[in-house]
User: Which sequence fits this backbone?
């Protein structure tokens, strides 16, 4: 994928978070800490759900899923928040410079600057996990916010961890300044959990989209129990944008540039002036020819063969090479 | 005209530049341009600057958290005297940056509960109280200044006291008690406040002294006291990570005490432990367990008894441990009969009461208990137990509890086989789902017996830890805020014990065993020191006569108090930092409160008890209510005892408070004492004789030295007296002053933990952290740790204390009991008269061994002893109709009602329920309904259901959350549903749909702990 390659070229310090769902008890401490730190309040839902979906008022959501197995009921809970993917589709589609980008100080954290966001919502369609949801404010005005993984807390050199991690009582959330640490911790925990009889537990996040910034250990053998797709990828819209529209835009841009250059080379500002003057004064072809020759003799028309081409054009088209006056202005 | 031509010729100079810009934009869109074209420097959005300001400008202070009984370290970020954010402390053994599981990323943790301090302080007048409030009868709250509010409270107390104080009762005994005033409080206060409160209240002659934490802590206290002689959890919290198996029974630590779960999960990583959960509801804890036994509601005890039977029948017990440390080898009296010999009761039963004379060991000629070391004789306790517990065999237990044999066996194997050998141990966590039952205390004993059989007491990674949500429930119980105890678990005097000598004769435990340390033989010293602390230099006999004597047959618990209030016997109630109306049956409490003459509440928010008249039915008339605003915990100093007996000092006063707005608990009690003793008239000499040094009693750190114990003769005031070093220094002649012998010597050590000298060193790597805070008794972190060493001095696999070269190596933990006595001299269980852990005990009124009975509200035949459905010595309280007594022959669908709590709500949610943020996280109360019942009644999630029973005839209506985590069950061909309600659901507060759910539960309950059963049967129907 072209977008992936773009992203792949860059090297970031990679911070990462481990969400160990074998330890998550669904106590909602992370959500409350986040709400306190960034001062949001959830819209409210029913039962254990304080929100129906992500939105500007929910930067983190706790999934809650019951399923019946042969051993009885299984209740799976885990916090869901922005994955901070290494090849982030949202970043790839964001059209506004600086609205959605990686924070270069804290590492691979993807930060949304709400003041620059133009609410085009491309990123919400692009997200491979459907974790970016817009909200509406007033009459149809979209607002968007996402987990910035507490960049102000986690910038390099700060001992702080994100607010959610600082409040997880069970050690289900672990934050590491380097993803290697987090992967090692994941391996260790997964091995121990498997040894105690939970053999089918899987981890999630490594290798998807260049490695997610959030690594999960699931208390289940299927990521869909946690409402996460087993095959995260760039969506078709992103693919179209990345593989068709953006190359096309690239080509169009380059072509435009080239044409501009040619224009400059072949005709230049003088040529344009002559033509404009010719139109204004309604010169005949002969008068025009004389004018060009004059300019040439003055040495002002430097472009090689420009006047010949111009002449050829004029002759071919007849008296009014550029159509009636006034039309050319538009 | 071609496109190229168009572009070619028609472009003006300006248009050319425009075109250049367009091509730049199209390139920018591809992401090439970001840094090239974006001229401005990148920053963070505004709200992140706001958040960053919290980080940079704030001051952070670390204090022990007081939002549950775990005692985590809390770091509070404060800006201009307002808390901005709370997070886990950086340096704390329970939740600080200690990488327990051994991995590289260290973590610190917290939970959702402490955030309510941030919310409440930020809120202003809807949150924390900022002035005293007084409500005249029939009126509404009006602001008042604190001083006149306390004066009013004192006047009310004095009025009732002078009218109702009983000096000599009808039988001519000196009782010195006042039964018209009740006191409830303590479990949210510091130890110093608990101490001062019990001092003033007992000085006033109150006998209705209790805490709402009774339902959580009293069964544990009684059960462990009967078994081990001491009432505390045996092992500290970080030690859970050393366990080889974790058994969680009837508790949901994931929501009640979330920080504990970290160690449970660490045990999985460190020791490959399995988490085993026995609970009727598939809670957050059960969800993460390896095996969950979803027992039928009310049968947790049967499951535990089945496990004990598994251990006994399959020989999984540890014989060496049993021979050394327990009473398994003792002969039990010939005339003793267990439930197997009779038709379901122990010997000595008649008409709702036991004669306990046959519940004894046989004494040999030398006065020692007769024993058989091989434990083969049929009268040895081990054989008696095999017979008794044989009734709880696998098939019967599986039939009653509804658990499949496979699950039962897998839990038994995982817990008993792994831990039933030397060097391995499993820990048991238990909670209200087990203890708030009609057999709650016996259930605690059953767990203790299981752990004793497996040799898991006194060793690393073993023990029993109760799960309690009230922050200082342990401290409140330690300092005598349970009616049956004075501080230090001295039984509170009854009217038949009219002299000091009679008291000592009754309660002193005499031992003939040469190697028994028998801590309680010094009860005369303990009581004399307590009396000296209460009444100063008065001679002990006179001082004893001042103490209020309760009626031994009367129930003075919070439930008894409720009944007395309903009868109109109580004129006034003092509530300190608790919310009985929300925690207990709100329906009955609101009605009972409206019958009072006055009510004094000391708290930092207006709680349900104070605001009961907001319920329109009780708005007119009713008592005069005085609310005194209390400081919150970040504004005061004091010590808090966590559930595993760690005493932590909160020295840092993070917020300075305005004295005119709020006062500390000690200042409140102090000025109440002043105003009470001012008038002088109508008061008995007891209150006047009270040893209350005003200057000392306002300062928590000085109160702590009083708690530590002082040599009374060495000075004239608290400041000049010398500190005592250990409980062994206490004297019976009134020369020592000590309120609580378990805390004696707490500040006398070299390390001044009360001045912040806490260290994170953990010598043995076992998580004992004995240089952090202090732990009663005598800084012993694991009680009975002598049991980890053989009597010849050789250690078991992983000892906590080591004995070598004829002396104790105190390198990991302080040795329990006499510090210099060798293992040969003193038996490990230092607090029992026999020096052993007592699996057979006559201390409880409902049996020397645990037996299963159905809950009072469930009309099922007891499969193990059909003649006795429920506990034969059940406490029945008036105003309580039991569903189990009536034959419910209707066609209605019946369901058993359980309780659950939510992670961010504290206890009954008295504080959290009123805060808007928390009301957003739980916007509406709901009732969990099992999916089968829901299908049967056609209920879908979100639809309203009505629950009603004989106690709550109108019923309560709540939206249903249909879940598979509860399951319905069948008994005798009838299918019963299971529903669960949230503990913090009461009518008042910000959250929608609050109803008095506690009214569904009975008040009948456990005779040992005077507790109520929390299983209610109700009719469920679509509303």
Assistant:
């Amino acid at each position: 994928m072209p977008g992936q390659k773009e992203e792949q070229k860059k090297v970031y310090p990679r911070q990462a978070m481990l969400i160990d769902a074998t330890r998550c008890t669904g106590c909602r401490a992370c959500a409350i800490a986040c709400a306190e730190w960034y001062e949001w309040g959830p819209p409210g839902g029913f039962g254990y759900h304080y929100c129906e979906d992500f939105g500007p008022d929910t930067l983190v959501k706790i999934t809650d899923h019951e399923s019946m197995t042969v051993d009885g009921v299984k209740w799976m809970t885990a916090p869901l928040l922005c994955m901070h993917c290494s090849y982030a589709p949202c970043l790839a589609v964001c059209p506004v410079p600086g609205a959605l980008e990686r924070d270069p100080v804290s590492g691979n954290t993807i930060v949304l600057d709400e003041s620059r966001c133009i609410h085009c919502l491309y990123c919400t369609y692009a997200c491979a996990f459907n974790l970016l949801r817009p909200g509406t404010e007033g009459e149809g005005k979209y607002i968007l916010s996402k987990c910035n993984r507490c960049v102000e807390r986690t910038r390099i050199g700060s001992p702080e961890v994100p607010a959610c991690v600082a409040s997880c009582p069970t050690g289900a959330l672990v934050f590491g300044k380097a993803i290697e640490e987090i992967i090692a911790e994941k391996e260790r925990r997964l091995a121990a959990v498997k040894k105690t009889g939970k053999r089918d537990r899987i981890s999630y996040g490594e290798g998807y989209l260049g490695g997610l910034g959030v690594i999960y250990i699931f208390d289940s053998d299927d990521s869909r129990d946690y409402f996460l797709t087993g095959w995260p990828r760039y969506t078709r819209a992103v693919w179209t944008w990345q593989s068709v529209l953006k190359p096309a835009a690239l080509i169009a841009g380059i072509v435009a540039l080239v044409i501009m250059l040619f224009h400059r080379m072949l005709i230049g500002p003088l040529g344009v002036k002559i033509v404009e003057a010719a139109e204004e004064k309604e010169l005949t072809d002969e008068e025009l020819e004389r004018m060009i020759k004059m300019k040439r003799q003055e040495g002002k028309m430097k472009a090689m063969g420009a006047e010949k081409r111009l002449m050829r054009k004029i002759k071919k088209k007849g008296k009014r090479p550029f159509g009636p006056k006034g039309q050319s202005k538009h | 005209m071609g496109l190229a031509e168009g572009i070619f010729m028609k472009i003006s100079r300006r248009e050319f530049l425009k075109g250049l810009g367009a091509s730049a934009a199209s390139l920018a869109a591809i992401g090439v341009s970001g840094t090239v074209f974006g001229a401005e420097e990148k920053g963070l959005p505004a709200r992140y600057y706001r958040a960053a300001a919290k980080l940079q400008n704030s001051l952070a202070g670390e204090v022990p958290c007081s939002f549950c009984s775990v005692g985590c370290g809390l770091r509070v970020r404060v800006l201009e005297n307002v808390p901005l954010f709370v997070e886990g402390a950086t340096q704390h053994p329970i939740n600080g940056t200690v990488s327990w599981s051994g991995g590289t990323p260290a973590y610190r943790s917290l939970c959702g509960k402490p955030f309510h301090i941030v919310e409440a302080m930020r809120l202003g007048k809807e949150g924390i109280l900022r002035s005293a409030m007084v409500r005249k009868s029939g009126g509404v709250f009006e602001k008042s200044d604190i001083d006149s509010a306390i004066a009013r409270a004192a006047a009310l107390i004095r009025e009732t006291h002078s009218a109702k104080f009983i000096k000599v009762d009808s039988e001519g005994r000196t009782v010195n008690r006042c039964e018209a005033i009740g006191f409830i409080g303590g479990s949210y206060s510091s130890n110093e406040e608990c101490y001062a409160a019990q001092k003033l209240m007992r000085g006033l002659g109150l006998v209705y002294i209790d805490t709402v934490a009774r339902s959580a802590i009293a069964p544990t206290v009684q059960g462990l006291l009967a078994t081990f002689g001491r009432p505390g959890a045996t092992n500290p919290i970080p030690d859970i990570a050393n366990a080889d198996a974790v058994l969680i029974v009837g508790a949901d630590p994931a929501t009640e005490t979330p920080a504990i779960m970290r160690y449970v999960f660490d045990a999985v990583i460190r020791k490959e432990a399995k988490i085993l959960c026995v609970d009727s509801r598939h809670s957050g804890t059960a969800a993460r367990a390896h095996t969950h036994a979803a027992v039928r509601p009310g049968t947790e005890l049967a499951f535990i008894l089945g496990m004990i039977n598994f251990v006994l029948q399959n020989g999984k017990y540890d014989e060496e441990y049993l021979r050394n440390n327990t009473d398994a080898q003792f002969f039990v009296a010939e005339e003793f009969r267990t439930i197997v010999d009779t038709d379901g009761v122990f010997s000595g039963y008649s008409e709702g009461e036991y004669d306990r004379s046959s519940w004894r060991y046989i004494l040999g000629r030398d006065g020692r208990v007769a024993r058989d070391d091989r434990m083969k004789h049929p009268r040895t306790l081990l054989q008696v137990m095999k017979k008794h517990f044989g009734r709880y065999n696998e098939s019967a237990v599986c039939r009653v509890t509804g658990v499949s044999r496979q699950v039962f066996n897998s839990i038994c194997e995982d817990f008993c086989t792994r831990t039933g050998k030397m060097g391995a141990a499993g820990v048991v966590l238990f909670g209200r789902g087990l203890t708030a039952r009609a057999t709650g205390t016996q259930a605690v004993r059953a767990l203790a017996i299981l752990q004793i059989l497996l040799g898991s007491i006194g060793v690393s990674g073993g023990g029993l830890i109760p799960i309690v949500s009230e922050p200082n429930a342990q401290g409140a119980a330690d300092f005598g805020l349970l009616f049956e105890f004075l501080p230090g678990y001295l039984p509170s005097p009854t009217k038949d014990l009219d002299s000091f000598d009679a008291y000592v004769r009754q309660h002193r435990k005499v031992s003939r065993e040469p190697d028994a340390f028998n801590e309680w033989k010094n009860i005369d010293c303990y009581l004399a020191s307590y009396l000296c602390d209460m009444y100063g230099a008065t001679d002990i006999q006179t001082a004893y006569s001042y103490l209020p004597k309760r009626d031994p047959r009367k129930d003075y618990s919070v439930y008894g108090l409720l009944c007395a209030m309903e009868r109109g016997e109580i004129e006034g109630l003092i509530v300190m930092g608790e919310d009985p109306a929300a925690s207990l049956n709100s329906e009955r409490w609101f009605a009972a409160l409206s019958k009072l003459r006055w009510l004094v509440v000391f708290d930092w928010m207006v709680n349900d008890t104070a605001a009961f008249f907001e319920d329109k039915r009780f708005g007119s008339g009713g008592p005069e209510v005085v609310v005194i605003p209390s400081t919150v915990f970040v504004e005061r100093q004091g010590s808090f005892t966590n559930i595993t007996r760690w005493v932590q000092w909160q020295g840092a006063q993070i917020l300075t408070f305005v004295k005119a707005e709020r006062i500390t608990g000690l200042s409140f009690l102090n000025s109440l004492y002043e105003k009470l003793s001012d008038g002088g008239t109508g008061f008995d000499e007891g209150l006047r004789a009270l040893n209350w040094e005003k200057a000392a009693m306002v300062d928590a750190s000085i109160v702590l030295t009083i708690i530590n114990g002082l040599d009374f003769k060495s000075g004239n005031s608290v400041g000049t007296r010398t500190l005592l070093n250990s409980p062994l220094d206490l004297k019976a002649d009134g020369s020592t002053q000590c309120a609580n012998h378990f805390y004696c010597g707490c500040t006398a050590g070299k390390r001044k933990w009360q001045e912040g000298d806490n260290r994170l060193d953990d010598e043995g790597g076992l998580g004992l952290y004995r240089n952090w805070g202090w732990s009663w008794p005598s800084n012993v972190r694991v009680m009975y740790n002598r049991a980890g060493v053989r009597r010849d001095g050789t250690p078991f696999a992983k000892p906590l204390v080591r004995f070598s070269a004829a002396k104790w190596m105190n390198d990991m933990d302080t040795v329990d009991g006499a510090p210099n006595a060798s293992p040969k001299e003193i038996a490990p269980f230092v607090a029992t008269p026999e020096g052993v852990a007592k699996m057979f005990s006559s201390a409880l009124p409902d049996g020397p061994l645990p037996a299963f009975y159905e809950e009072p509200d469930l009309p099922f035949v007891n499969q193990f002893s059909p003649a006795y459905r429920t506990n034969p010595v059940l406490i029945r309280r008036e105003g309580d109709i039991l569903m189990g007594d009536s034959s419910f022959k209707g066609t209605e669908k019946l369901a058993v009602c359980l309780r659950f709590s939510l992670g961010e709500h504290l206890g009954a949610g008295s504080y959290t329920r009123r805060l808007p943020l928390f009301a957003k996280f739980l916007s509406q109360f709901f009732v969990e309904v099992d999916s089968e019942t829901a299908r049967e009644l056609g209920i879908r999630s979100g639809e309203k259901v009505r629950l009603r029973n004989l106690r709550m005839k109108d019923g309560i209506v709540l939206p249903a959350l249909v879940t598979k985590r509860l399951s319905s069950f069948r008994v005798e061909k009838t299918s019963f549903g299971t529903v669960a309600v949230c503990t913090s659901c009461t009518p008042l507060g910000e959250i929608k749909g609050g109803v008095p759910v506690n009214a569904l539960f009975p008040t009948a309950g456990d005779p040992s702990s005077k507790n109520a059963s929390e299983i209610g049967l109700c009719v469920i129907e679509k509303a």
